[in-house]
Structure formats: C-alpha cells, structure tokens
Specification:
three-stranded mixed β-sheet, 2 helices, alpha/beta, 41% strand, seven-stranded mixed β-sheet, 124 residues
C-alpha cells in the first residue's frame, strides 16, 4: 500500500505549469511521478512523467491539487527536493534544487548523490 509522505516540494508556479501540461496532454486524472535515473554527465538525472498507476511501495503526496508519487527507491535521494518553474524572455523551464546532490552538472538536469553511485555519461 502506498504511504503518505512529502518528498518533493512543488512550488505554486511549478504546479500551475504541471496542470497546464496535464490539460494539453489529456492527463488531468494522472499523477506526477518524479524519479531518478542513471545517465547524464554527472551520473544521475531527474525524470518527471504523468502516470495512471501508483505502486504499492510509492510515497504519495498531494500539493496544489496534484498527486505526486515517488518510488521508495528514489525517496532518499529526492527528499526535500524543490521543483519550481521559471519564466524568462528566452522561454521557461522547470528548475530542480536537490539538497541531497553532491554535485550538479552545468546542464542542470544531471547530478551526483552519495546514496546511489552511477556511471557518468556525456551530456546530449
């Protein structure tokens, strides 16, 4: 059974953008999964996707009307990670501030964490 636990901190600006994307992709009833995967120039990278299924061992939280799910495996690395959305003249994008990252790549989507060693790969 999934447990209630806040792992991710979603800002109001990020939640607004996620809701817009849910409408555009016809995923209004989906959850937002935040994950860590191997890859990137620092060894690990972030992933966000819409999902219809919550797994038994997922941590689940609701913020700004969005159900956020994080796997038990990724929760330690993502604990207290803040996801924001910044808009500029050149466009907009999500920013991720992870206090558990030992180092981050210049691309902003790749990082190192002590809890999960990973093999570094060239940035694309």
């Amino acid at each position: 059974m999934a447990s209630e636990k806040q792992v991710i901190i979603l800002t109001e600006a990020a939640s607004f953008q996620v809701k817009e994307m849910m409408v555009q992709n016809e995923e209004e009833n989906a959850s937002l999964r935040v994950a860590v995967k191997g890859g990137g120039c620092s060894g690990l990278s972030y992933g966000m996707a819409f999902e219809q299924t919550v797994n038994e061992d997922d941590f689940v939280d609701n913020q700004y009307g969005i159900q956020i799910i994080v796997s038990k495996e990724d929760a330690g690395i993502l604990q207290d990670t803040k996801i924001d959305f910044k808009q500029s003249l050149m466009g907009g994008g999500f920013t991720i501030d992870n206090p558990n990252a030992l180092a981050s790549c210049g691309c902003g989507t790749s990082f190192k964490a002590a809890a999960r060693p990973a093999v570094e790969q060239p940035c694309e």
